[in-house]
């Protein structure tokens, strides 16, 4: 393993910092990320909606449909891959690879 591979994971939060079925925002430098705990896995996407100025972490997290609902206009995003799933959202939000190591959630930025 080389030095670059050693540094790809950035610590985001503890596994107990995001409740089951919840989404929560975290800041890493200039990035505001939305972490989702669906009860089995953690997922991380950009928190800012691509339709307007609203944070997905402040909307509804539906772990049955695997979507985040934007609190401003109700756009839907699949938190597993960031894809837009419902009007007026058209552009995806960026999604990030996640690694759970021990009790920490790490993200590849
Ligand atoms: S700002 Fe998110 S759907 Fe409009």
TrEMBL record:
SUPFAM superfamilies: ISP domain (SSF50022). PROSITE patterns: RIESKE (PS51296). Pfam families: Rieske. It comes from the Bacteria. Keywords: 2Fe-2S, Iron, Iron-sulfur, Metal-binding. Residues 9-107 form the Rieske domain. Signal peptide: none annotated. This is Non-heme iron oxygenase ferredoxin subunit. It comes from Rhizobium puerariae.
């Amino acid at each position: 393993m080389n030095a670059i591979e050693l540094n790809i994971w950035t610590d985001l939060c503890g596994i107990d910092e995001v409740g089951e079925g919840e989404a929560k925002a975290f800041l890493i430098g200039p990035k505001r990320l939305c972490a989702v705990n669906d009860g089995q896995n953690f997922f991380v996407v950009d928190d800012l909606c691509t339709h307007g100025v609203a944070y997905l972490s402040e909307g509804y997290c539906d772990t049955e449909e695997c979507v985040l609902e934007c609190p401003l206009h109700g756009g839907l995003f699949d938190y597993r891959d960031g894809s837009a799933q419902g009007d007026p959202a058209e552009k995806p939000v960026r999604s990030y690879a996640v690694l759970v190591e021990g009790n920490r959630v790490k993200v590849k930025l």
